[in-house]
Write a structure and sequence with these properties.
This protein is α/β, with parallel strands linked by helices. It folds into two domains: 158 residues, 3-Layer(aba) Sandwich (Rossmann fold), CATH 3.40.50.300; 60 residues, no CATH class. The protein is 37% helix and 27% strand. The protein has nine helices and ten strands. A six-stranded mixed beta sheet has the order 6-7-8-3-9-10, sandwiched between helices. The chain has a four-stranded antiparallel beta sheet with strand order 2-1-4-5, covered by helices on one side. Helix 3 packs across helix 4. The chain is globular, with a radius of gyration of 18 Å. The N and C termini lie far apart (42 Å). Bound molecules: adenosine-5'-diphosphate and magnesium ion (MG). The site of magnesium ion has 3 residues, from helix 1.
Length: 240
Protein backbone atom coordinates (compact mmCIF):
# COMPACT_ATOMS: atom_id res chain seq x y z
CA UNK A 1 0.00 0.00 0.00
CA UNK A 2 1.63 3.18 -1.18
CA UNK A 3 -1.12 5.70 -0.51
CA UNK A 4 -0.69 7.85 2.58
CA UNK A 5 -3.87 9.89 2.03
CA UNK A 6 -6.80 9.09 -0.18
CA UNK A 7 -10.12 10.80 -0.81
CA UNK A 8 -12.93 8.94 -2.54
CA UNK A 9 -16.09 10.32 -4.06
CA UNK A 10 -15.85 13.54 -2.10
CA UNK A 11 -18.67 16.07 -2.32
CA UNK A 12 -19.06 19.28 -0.39
CA UNK A 13 -21.83 21.76 -0.75
CA UNK A 14 -22.61 24.90 1.16
CA UNK A 15 -26.35 25.32 0.82
CA UNK A 16 -27.01 25.14 -2.90
CA UNK A 17 -23.39 25.78 -3.86
CA UNK A 18 -21.51 22.65 -4.99
CA UNK A 19 -17.91 23.36 -4.10
CA UNK A 20 -16.50 19.82 -4.40
CA UNK A 21 -18.04 17.46 -6.91
CA UNK A 22 -17.00 13.80 -6.78
CA UNK A 23 -13.29 14.27 -6.07
CA UNK A 24 -11.00 11.23 -6.02
CA UNK A 25 -7.38 11.83 -5.10
CA UNK A 26 -4.47 9.71 -3.89
CA UNK A 27 -1.34 11.10 -2.25
CA UNK A 28 1.50 8.57 -2.42
CA UNK A 29 3.94 8.07 0.42
CA UNK A 30 7.13 10.04 -0.20
CA UNK A 31 5.91 12.44 -2.88
CA UNK A 32 5.49 16.19 -3.15
CA UNK A 33 1.97 16.57 -4.51
CA UNK A 34 0.66 19.96 -5.58
CA UNK A 35 -3.00 20.89 -5.74
CA UNK A 36 -3.53 23.81 -8.08
CA UNK A 37 -6.41 25.56 -9.80
CA UNK A 38 -7.98 28.97 -10.33
CA UNK A 39 -9.30 31.03 -7.44
CA UNK A 40 -12.54 29.57 -6.11
CA UNK A 41 -11.83 26.12 -7.59
CA UNK A 42 -12.34 24.51 -4.18
CA UNK A 43 -8.71 23.90 -3.18
CA UNK A 44 -8.95 25.24 0.36
CA UNK A 45 -12.27 23.46 0.84
CA UNK A 46 -10.71 20.15 -0.22
CA UNK A 47 -7.79 20.87 2.10
CA UNK A 48 -10.18 21.51 4.99
CA UNK A 49 -12.09 18.30 4.32
CA UNK A 50 -8.79 16.39 4.27
CA UNK A 51 -7.69 17.79 7.63
CA UNK A 52 -11.12 17.55 9.22
CA UNK A 53 -12.10 21.22 9.55
CA UNK A 54 -15.09 20.46 7.32
CA UNK A 55 -17.11 17.29 7.09
CA UNK A 56 -17.78 16.22 3.51
CA UNK A 57 -21.39 16.10 2.28
CA UNK A 58 -20.53 12.67 0.86
CA UNK A 59 -17.43 10.56 0.36
CA UNK A 60 -14.50 9.35 2.42
CA UNK A 61 -11.07 10.41 3.62
CA UNK A 62 -8.56 7.62 4.33
CA UNK A 63 -5.27 8.24 6.12
CA UNK A 64 -2.74 5.39 6.29
CA UNK A 65 -5.51 3.10 5.12
CA UNK A 66 -7.85 4.07 7.96
CA UNK A 67 -11.19 5.81 7.41
CA UNK A 68 -10.81 9.15 9.25
CA UNK A 69 -13.86 10.86 7.69
CA UNK A 70 -15.60 11.41 11.03
CA UNK A 71 -12.43 12.25 12.95
CA UNK A 72 -11.67 15.66 14.41
CA UNK A 73 -8.57 17.55 13.21
CA UNK A 74 -6.63 16.84 16.43
CA UNK A 75 -7.26 13.12 16.03
CA UNK A 76 -5.83 13.28 12.51
CA UNK A 77 -2.84 15.23 13.80
CA UNK A 78 -2.26 12.54 16.40
CA UNK A 79 -2.20 9.97 13.61
CA UNK A 80 0.48 11.91 11.73
CA UNK A 81 -1.06 14.72 9.69
CA UNK A 82 0.31 18.17 10.28
CA UNK A 83 -1.23 21.29 8.91
CA UNK A 84 -0.31 24.80 7.97
CA UNK A 85 -3.36 26.82 7.06
CA UNK A 86 -3.44 29.74 4.66
CA UNK A 87 -3.32 32.37 7.43
CA UNK A 88 -0.27 32.07 9.73
CA UNK A 89 -1.06 31.57 13.40
CA UNK A 90 2.17 31.92 15.36
CA UNK A 91 2.15 33.36 18.89
CA UNK A 92 3.17 36.86 17.90
CA UNK A 93 4.19 38.17 21.32
CA UNK A 94 6.39 35.18 22.13
CA UNK A 95 9.99 34.66 21.00
CA UNK A 96 10.60 32.46 17.98
CA UNK A 97 12.30 29.77 20.06
CA UNK A 98 9.40 29.70 22.52
CA UNK A 99 6.95 29.15 19.67
CA UNK A 100 8.87 26.05 18.64
CA UNK A 101 9.21 24.81 22.21
CA UNK A 102 5.46 25.08 22.76
CA UNK A 103 4.83 23.00 19.65
CA UNK A 104 7.53 20.47 20.58
CA UNK A 105 6.12 20.00 24.08
CA UNK A 106 3.13 18.29 22.55
CA UNK A 107 5.21 15.41 21.23
CA UNK A 108 8.66 15.13 22.80
CA UNK A 109 10.00 14.26 26.25
CA UNK A 110 11.54 17.26 28.03
CA UNK A 111 15.17 16.27 27.54
CA UNK A 112 14.78 16.15 23.73
CA UNK A 113 13.08 19.52 23.27
CA UNK A 114 16.14 21.83 23.29
CA UNK A 115 18.05 19.76 20.76
CA UNK A 116 15.11 19.48 18.41
CA UNK A 117 14.32 23.21 18.74
CA UNK A 118 17.91 23.99 17.70
CA UNK A 119 17.67 21.61 14.75
CA UNK A 120 14.47 23.33 13.59
CA UNK A 121 15.97 26.83 13.99
CA UNK A 122 18.83 25.80 11.70
CA UNK A 123 16.49 24.15 9.20
CA UNK A 124 14.29 27.27 9.08
CA UNK A 125 17.31 29.62 9.03
CA UNK A 126 15.94 31.45 12.04
CA UNK A 127 18.85 31.04 14.49
CA UNK A 128 19.63 34.76 14.47
CA UNK A 129 15.98 35.58 15.26
CA UNK A 130 15.41 33.00 17.99
CA UNK A 131 14.92 35.57 20.80
CA UNK A 132 12.87 37.97 18.71
CA UNK A 133 9.09 38.20 19.10
CA UNK A 134 7.52 36.12 16.31
CA UNK A 135 5.29 39.06 15.36
CA UNK A 136 8.40 41.05 14.38
CA UNK A 137 9.60 38.51 11.83
CA UNK A 138 9.09 39.20 8.14
CA UNK A 139 5.97 37.69 6.67
CA UNK A 140 8.04 34.95 5.02
CA UNK A 141 9.87 34.13 8.22
CA UNK A 142 6.54 33.83 10.06
CA UNK A 143 5.39 31.34 7.46
CA UNK A 144 8.60 29.34 7.96
CA UNK A 145 8.13 29.42 11.71
CA UNK A 146 4.66 28.06 11.26
CA UNK A 147 5.99 25.27 9.04
CA UNK A 148 8.47 24.58 11.84
CA UNK A 149 5.63 24.35 14.35
CA UNK A 150 3.87 21.89 12.07
CA UNK A 151 7.11 19.87 11.81
CA UNK A 152 7.45 19.88 15.59
CA UNK A 153 4.51 17.49 15.67
CA UNK A 154 6.68 14.91 13.83
CA UNK A 155 4.17 14.35 11.06
CA UNK A 156 4.22 11.70 8.35
CA UNK A 157 2.28 13.99 6.04
CA UNK A 158 2.72 17.75 5.92
CA UNK A 159 -0.18 19.71 4.44
CA UNK A 160 0.46 23.31 3.40
CA UNK A 161 -2.20 25.72 2.13
CA UNK A 162 -0.55 28.50 0.12
CA UNK A 163 2.72 28.50 2.07
CA UNK A 164 4.18 31.28 -0.10
CA UNK A 165 1.23 33.69 0.07
CA UNK A 166 2.59 37.21 0.50
CA UNK A 167 6.25 36.16 0.11
CA UNK A 168 8.91 37.84 -1.99
CA UNK A 169 10.28 35.78 -4.92
CA UNK A 170 13.44 35.13 -2.88
CA UNK A 171 11.46 33.91 0.14
CA UNK A 172 9.29 31.81 -2.17
CA UNK A 173 12.34 30.13 -3.67
CA UNK A 174 13.78 29.40 -0.23
CA UNK A 175 10.46 27.92 0.84
CA UNK A 176 10.70 25.60 -2.16
CA UNK A 177 14.17 24.56 -1.08
CA UNK A 178 12.92 23.88 2.44
CA UNK A 179 10.09 21.69 1.15
CA UNK A 180 12.46 19.77 -1.14
CA UNK A 181 14.87 19.20 1.68
CA UNK A 182 12.11 17.89 3.95
CA UNK A 183 10.99 15.61 1.16
CA UNK A 184 14.51 14.25 0.64
CA UNK A 185 14.53 13.43 4.34
CA UNK A 186 11.39 11.36 3.82
CA UNK A 187 8.47 13.74 4.37
CA UNK A 188 5.37 13.41 2.20
CA UNK A 189 4.05 16.89 1.35
CA UNK A 190 0.78 18.15 -0.08
CA UNK A 191 0.93 21.78 -1.18
CA UNK A 192 -2.01 23.92 -2.27
CA UNK A 193 -0.72 26.76 -4.41
CA UNK A 194 -1.42 28.99 -7.32
CA UNK A 195 2.09 30.38 -7.91
CA UNK A 196 3.17 28.44 -11.02
CA UNK A 197 6.87 29.29 -10.69
CA UNK A 198 6.88 27.80 -7.22
CA UNK A 199 4.96 24.74 -8.37
CA UNK A 200 7.49 24.14 -11.14
CA UNK A 201 10.26 24.33 -8.58
CA UNK A 202 8.87 21.70 -6.22
CA UNK A 203 6.15 19.60 -7.77
CA UNK A 204 6.41 15.95 -8.69
CA UNK A 205 2.75 15.16 -9.30
CA UNK A 206 0.09 17.78 -9.79
CA UNK A 207 -3.68 17.68 -9.46
CA UNK A 208 -5.63 20.49 -11.11
CA UNK A 209 -8.97 21.34 -9.56
CA UNK A 210 -11.51 23.28 -11.61
CA UNK A 211 -15.08 24.05 -10.48
CA UNK A 212 -14.67 21.50 -7.70
CA UNK A 213 -13.71 18.62 -9.98
CA UNK A 214 -10.38 16.97 -10.78
CA UNK A 215 -9.64 18.46 -14.17
CA UNK A 216 -6.22 16.92 -14.75
CA UNK A 217 -3.65 14.92 -12.84
CA UNK A 218 -0.14 14.26 -14.08
CA UNK A 219 3.56 14.96 -13.71
CA UNK A 220 4.48 18.63 -13.51
CA UNK A 221 6.02 18.50 -17.01
CA UNK A 222 2.85 17.10 -18.57
CA UNK A 223 0.67 19.63 -16.71
CA UNK A 224 2.80 22.55 -17.86
CA UNK A 225 2.55 21.29 -21.45
CA UNK A 226 -1.21 20.72 -21.32
CA UNK A 227 -2.95 23.50 -23.27
CA UNK A 228 -6.30 22.78 -21.56
CA UNK A 229 -4.68 23.51 -18.23
CA UNK A 230 -3.13 26.71 -19.53
CA UNK A 231 -6.54 27.81 -20.69
CA UNK A 232 -8.44 27.27 -17.46
CA UNK A 233 -5.65 27.89 -15.06
CA UNK A 234 -3.77 30.75 -16.60
CA UNK A 235 -6.72 32.09 -18.55
CA UNK A 236 -4.67 31.88 -21.73
CA UNK A 237 -5.60 30.53 -25.12
CA UNK A 238 -3.42 27.88 -26.68
CA UNK A 239 -1.18 29.44 -29.31
CA UNK A 240 -1.18 27.35 -32.49
P1 LIG B 1 -9.87 28.07 -3.57
O1 LIG B 1 -9.10 27.74 -2.34
O2 LIG B 1 -9.60 27.12 -4.71
O3 LIG B 1 -9.68 29.48 -4.00
P2 LIG B 1 -12.22 27.72 -1.89
O4 LIG B 1 -12.25 26.28 -1.52
O5 LIG B 1 -11.73 28.68 -0.88
O6 LIG B 1 -11.44 27.89 -3.27
O7 LIG B 1 -13.68 28.17 -2.32
C1 LIG B 1 -14.43 27.51 -3.31
C2 LIG B 1 -15.83 28.06 -3.34
O8 LIG B 1 -16.50 27.71 -2.13
C3 LIG B 1 -15.90 29.57 -3.44
O9 LIG B 1 -16.97 29.89 -4.29
C4 LIG B 1 -16.19 29.99 -2.01
O10 LIG B 1 -16.89 31.20 -1.98
C5 LIG B 1 -17.02 28.85 -1.50
N1 LIG B 1 -16.89 28.63 -0.05
C6 LIG B 1 -15.75 28.29 0.59
N2 LIG B 1 -15.97 28.16 1.90
C7 LIG B 1 -17.28 28.43 2.11
C8 LIG B 1 -18.13 28.46 3.26
N3 LIG B 1 -17.64 28.17 4.49
N4 LIG B 1 -19.43 28.78 3.08
C9 LIG B 1 -19.90 29.06 1.84
N5 LIG B 1 -19.18 29.04 0.72
C10 LIG B 1 -17.87 28.73 0.85
MG1 LIG C 1 -7.65 28.85 -1.08
Amino acid sequence: MNAILEVRGLHKHFGGLNVLDDVDLVIDTGEIHCLIGPNGAGKSTLFKVMVGTYEPSAGKVLFLGEDVTGRKPFERVRRGMSIKMQVPSVFRELPVLQNLVIALQQRLPRQEIDGEAQRLLVLLELQAQKDQAAGRLSHGQQQWLEIGMALALQPRLLLLDEPTAGMSPEETFRTGELIQRLNREGMTVLVVEHDMTFIRQIAQRVTVLHFGRVFAQDSIDAIVDDPRVAEIYLGKRHVH
